[in-house]
Fold this sequence. Notes:
Number of strands: 12
Bound molecules: S-adenosylmethionine
Number of domains: 2
Number of helices: 11
CATH superfamily of the largest domain: Vaccinia Virus protein VP39
Strand order of the largest sheet: 8-4-3-9-10-12-11
Strand content: 15-25%
Amino acid sequence: MLAKVSADGGDKQRARTIDTPALSECDYRTFCDYLERLCGIVLGSNKQYLLTNRLLPLLDEYSLRSFSELIALIVSGKKTSLATRVVDAMTTNETSWFRDQFPFKLLKHHILPGMLEAGRRRVSIWSAACSSGQEPYSISMAIAEFLDTHPQCFLNPKIVSTDISTTVLNQARKGIYDDAAIARGLDARQSKRFFTAGQNGFQVIPEIKTRIAFQLLDLQQDYSVLGKQDVIFCRNVLIYFSSQLRNNIIERMIANMNPKGYLFLGASESLGGFVRYFETVRGHGGMVYQLK
Length: 292
Ligand SMILES: C[S@@+](CC[C@H](N)C(=O)[O-])C[C@H]1O[C@@H](n2cnc3c(N)ncnc32)[C@H](O)[C@@H]1O
C-alpha cells in the first residue's frame, strides 16, 4: 500500500512530496522500542511521519520495498552498520554558534572570573551533546575572549565534546563550515578572528581547535572516564529522553562534577528533583545551575 508523505522543509532527509510505503502501527512500536534501547530517544505517538521521512533513504539504499522489511533488518542486528545509520537519521542535530548567547556570557563574565578568583588554574568543560561542533567551538571562543584580558591565567583549558552521532562528530572534528552555517550566530568580528577562509569553507583556527577533544559517547553509557568537570553543557538533548533516563543522566553528571561545578541545560529542560543539589545563578538573560 502506498501513502503520500510530505516532508516539511525543516526536516533533514527530504524536502519533497513522495510516494512511500505505509508504516504499520506494529512496526512503528517495534521501531520506537528499538530506538529507545539504541540511543535513549523516545519518539512518542504520532511521529510516524518523522520516522518515514528519515528512514526513507535507507529503504532505497538497502533495496528494500517496505518499512516492515527495513525495521525487521534493523532490529535483527544482522547489519551492524545499520545501527549507526539509524542514529544518524533519527537524531536531531539542530545547533548554532553561541546558541542562546547567555551561557557563553555567563562563562566569560561570571564562571571563569570566579574560578580565577578562587585560585583555580585548570578548567575542564564538557559539551555533552555537541552536534556539529558549534557549541564547543563557541565555548573555546568565549575562553579566548576571556584570555585576551587575563592572559595565561589558566593552564591548558580543556573541552571534551561528545555526541552519539558519528556523522555530526566528524563534521565537528573537521571544523569547516559553509556560509549558511557561519551566518547563524557569529558576528563579523568573531568570524574574522576565529576562522580562515578556504576552498571548502571557513576553517576554525588552531588556537580554538586545540583545546577540544571530540569523542563518540552515548549518554546512556558510563562517562566517568571523561574525568571530573568544572562546567557541563548538556543542552537540548534531555528533551528527547524518558524522565527516567533524564534523571539517571543528571545523577551521573552530578557525580562527574567538581565541587561548585556548573551545569547548563537547554531552555526547555529542567533538573526536576535534583534542583536541591544546586544554586541557581542568573545573569545575561539566562541561568546556570551551580553545585552547592
Ligand atoms: C539538538 S542537538 C543539541 C546540540 C547542542 N548541544 C546545542 O544545544 O546546540 C542534540 C544532539 O544530541 C545528540 N544525542 C542524541 N541522543 C544522544 C545520546 N543518547 N547520547 C549522546 N548524544 C545524543 C544528537 O546526536 C544531537 O547532535
